[in-house]
Queue: 2 jobs
Job 1
Amino acid sequence: MVLTSTFTPRNFREQSEKASHDATLRAVLDHATRYFMGKRGAALDAFADRDTHFARARAARLAALSRLPELLEELEQSAIAVGTQVHWAADAAEAREIITGIATDCGAKVVGKGKSMVTEEIALNPALEATGAEVWETDLGEFIVQLAGEPPSHIIAPCIHKSRADVAALFREKLGLADLSDSASIPELTLLARRALREKFLAADLGVTGVNMAVAGSGSVILVENEGNIRMSTTCPPVHVAVMSLEKVVATLEDAADILRVLPRSATGQKMSSYVSVLTGPRRASEPNVENDGARESHLVILDNGRSEVLADPVLREALLCFRCGACLNSCPVYQTIGGHAYGSVYSGPIGALLSSLLLPAEDTRDLPFGCTMCGACKKTCPLGIDHPKLMLRLRERVCAGKPQFIGAAHAFLATHPLAYRLAVGAARAVDPHLDLLPRLPGLPSGLASFVESRQPPGLKPPFSTQLRAGRKKQGGA
Amino acid sequence: MSRTRILATLRAGLAAAPLSVPEPPARPASLAVGPDAWALLAEVLAPLDVRLRLAQNPAEAATHVADIARERGAASYARWDEMPAGLDMDAALAGLTRLSPDCCQALAHVDLGLTFAQAALLDSGSLVLIAGPQRPRSVSLLPPTHVCLVQRSALLPDVSALPELLSSQRDPSGLLPSCLNLVTGPSSTADIELVLVRGVHGPGALDIVGLDWEL
C-alpha cells in the first residue's frame, strides 16, 4: 500500500473501503492488535486490585477536568516558580508560532523530537523546518515513518505497517547505507537507527516533546517512554519545549502516581515503562556544571485547539479523560480491519474518531462517528471507563442535528416490528432481487438510496422447483 | 489574549454543566517491604533481563561491579560522584579508564555508567534516580551499560511512594529536584515488526547491585 499524507477524515469512507481490501494491512493489523491485547491481558490478569486502581486513575482524571481552569492557573504559577516559561496557545497556528519563535530565539539548527501526538496534531515539523532547522523524530517508529514521508499508524507503534525489509530499503536509501541487505536483522536495524540519531541528539539545539501529565501542584511535567529518546531530547539539548494539550494536567503528584500504576500496564502490558521522567523546571545552578545534562531553559506550551469548548458538553467531555494508552484501538473491530491511516487524522481508533470529531471542523468529520459497530469493546477495555459508544451516538445525533431522517425513522419502525420487516424485505426482494432498481427509483429518499448503493445483498437461493429439477438431473446422470 | 479566552471558555463550560466527582475508593494497601524484598525485586527484574546481584559488604559489592564491567566488555566508565559511604568504586574498576561526565559528547563514548538509586520500587522493579549536584542525568542514559547500586533501606513498595520521596529531596530553597527518572529495565523498543530489542537510545544492559548491609 502506498501511503501519502493526503489522508483526510473527509474521505474516511473511501479510505476505509480501500484499507479493508488490503490483505497485507489486514495481516499486519491482526498480528499487532493481538500482540498488544495479549500483553495487556496478561499484565492486567496479574494486577492485584486492578479495578480499584482503575477507579482511582479515573477519579484523578475526572477531578482534573472538574477543576480544569483552576488547575491550569495553578500549573502556570508552579511552573513559573520552578523556572519554566509558560505559553498559552488557543490553536495550532498559535502553538506553531510560539514554538518556532523559541527555536529562532535559541538559534536552533537541529531539533530532536520525542514521540508526541500533539505535535503531529499541530503539524509542528513543517513549521520548524521552515525556520531552516533540521527536525528529527527520534522514536524509532516515528523516525521510520518520517524517513518514509508517511503519517504514523498507531498511537503506540507508529510503523506497525512496515516490515523489516521495508525498513532496510528505507535506511539504504535515506541513511546512505548502500550495503545494507534486505535480510538485515531487526537488532541490526535498530542499532543503525541508534547511531544515526545519537549524532543528531548530540548536535541538537532544541528538544521538543509532548507531555503525558503535568502536575499543577509542583509545576512538573511527566514523560513516559521505553526507548530513552525522550530522556535524550530533554537531557542533551540546552532548550526543552514540552507541548501539552490542556486536559493533561492533574492536581497532585499523588494523582500522577495513581495514573502511573495504570497507564503503562494498559498501554503495553508493562508494570512500568522503561523510562518515566518527572521534570520540574530547567537544570538548577546547583547541578553539576556539565554541559548538556538537562536543559538550561524549559518551556511549557499549553494548547487548547478546540478542547475548552468540549468541556461544556456533559457527555462528550468524557473524551478528555483519555490518557492515550491506545488499548481501545487494539480492541476495536473497525480499527482491526482498517488500521490507523484510514481515519485520516492524527488520532485513530475509537478515541481517535471521537477526538477528531470534537477537534476538527464538523464538515470534515461527519462520517467518523459512523465508523463504529457499537459493540462496546472499547468501553470494556478502557481503564478510565470512557463510554465510547455513548459518545459516538451523541456525535451521530449532532451530525443529523438531532432530527432523525425519514429513512432512519422507517428503519426504526421496521426493526421493532418483525412482521412488517419481513413483508417489506419480501416485497423488495420479489420485485427487485438484486436491489438494482431500488436506488434508481424516483422520489426515493436519498438516505435509502445511499444505504442500498453501499451494500451488496446476498444472492437469493434459487427457487425450490429449480433445485428439485437440478437434483433429478444429477441423479439421472449418475 | 489566548490565556484569558481559554480560561473563560473552560469556566463557562463548567458553569453550564457542573462536573461532580464521586469519592474514589481508597488506595489499595501497598506491598509490605519485608525480609523477602530482595527476592521480590529479583523476580520482577528477571523478565526485563536485569540481573540483581546481592553484596553483603563493600568488598563483595566491588567484586560484583568489577565482574559486571568484565562481562560487559567495558574499557571505560563514568560515575556519579556521590556514592554510598565506604565504597571505593574507582578501586573496583581500576583496570578501566574513568571519564568525567562533563558533557554528553564525552559520555557518548563511555562504555559503562555507574549510579546509585535513591529508591527502588518492588511492584515494578523501577530504579529511582534523582538528579542533583553530584548526580548528572546522562550517566544512566548514554553509555551502553548502566550499573546501579541499591541500598536495602532504599527499597519501597511502589510508585505511590514517589511524592514523599521527591519532597524529601527538596533543595535548600525548597524546590523539588529538577529531574527524577524512573528506570525500569533496559531501553527497549518493539517498533519494527513488534520484535523486542533492548538498547535503542538508552543502555541496552542494566545491572543492579543490591547493598545488603546497614549503611
Note: Chain A has a mean pLDDT of 91.
Job 2
Amino acid sequence: MTRSSRHYPAFYEKGIPVLLGFIVLLALALLVLAVLVVLGLFPS
Amino acid sequence: MFIYLPLLSFLVSLALAFFVLRRWTQRRRPHLLLWGLGALFYGIGSFTEFYYGVFGWQPLVFRLWYLCGAILVAAWLGQGTAYLLLKRKTAHVLMALLLAASVYAAWRVFAAPLDPTQMLADELSGHALPSSVRLLTPFFNLYGTVLLVGGAVYSAWIFWRKRVLLHRTIGNVLIAFGALMPAFGGAFSRAGIPYALYAGEFIGIVLIFLGFWRATHPSAA
C-alpha cells in the first residue's frame, strides 16, 4: 500500500502510530495474563 | 461512592445501545445489531453490579451479571467487528459458534451452585461460582478482545496509512483503548485492588461511546 500525499494534522501524524503501538502492547500483556489465568498461575 | 460507578456505566451503555441500534434500524448492517446487543449486555452487567451494591445478594442478579457482564459482552461486541471486517460467510460461521458457546455458557452459569460467602463486601466477583464455570470466561473475552481491539487497531492503521477519515481513525483508537479497560480493571481487581473492575468498566464504556460517536460524526473532525 502506498502512502497518500495527504497529511493529517501534525499531532495525529505522529501520535496515532504511537498510540496504536501502545494499545498493541497492552493487548499483548492481557493475552499473557489470560494464558496465566487458564494455566492457574493467576487468580481467576 | 464507588458502588454508583456501575450506575453511570449502565447509563452510558444504554445511550450507546440506543445510538447504535438506531443506526442499525436505518442501515440494517449486522455489525451494528451485534454492537447494539453487546452494549445491552454491558448495560445488564453494570446494572446488576449497581443492584448488588445497593440491595445486596440475589442469585438471579448474580447469574445475569456473570453471564452478560463477565462472559458475553466482549465476545458479542467482537462479533460485531467480525461482521464489519471479515467475509460474511466467515462471520456467519463464527456467529454460529458464538451462539452455541453462549447457550452452553448460559446453561453452565444458571445450573451452577452458588456460594455467596466468597463474595467481596459490596462488589460482585466471580468467586461465588465454581472454578470450572469461571474457566469459560477467558475464552470468550479473548475472542471478543482480539476481534474488537484488533479490528479497531487495524481500521485505525488503515485509515492512518491512507491519511483519510481522521474522525474514524480517532474513533477507532478510542474504541480500542476502551475495549481494553474492563479487561485491565478485571486483572487489577483479581490482584486485590478494590473497585478496579468497576472503574475499568466505566472508563471503558465512556471511551467506546466517545469512539463510536467520533467515528460516526465526520463534521466534528
Note: The radius of gyration of chain B is 17 Å.
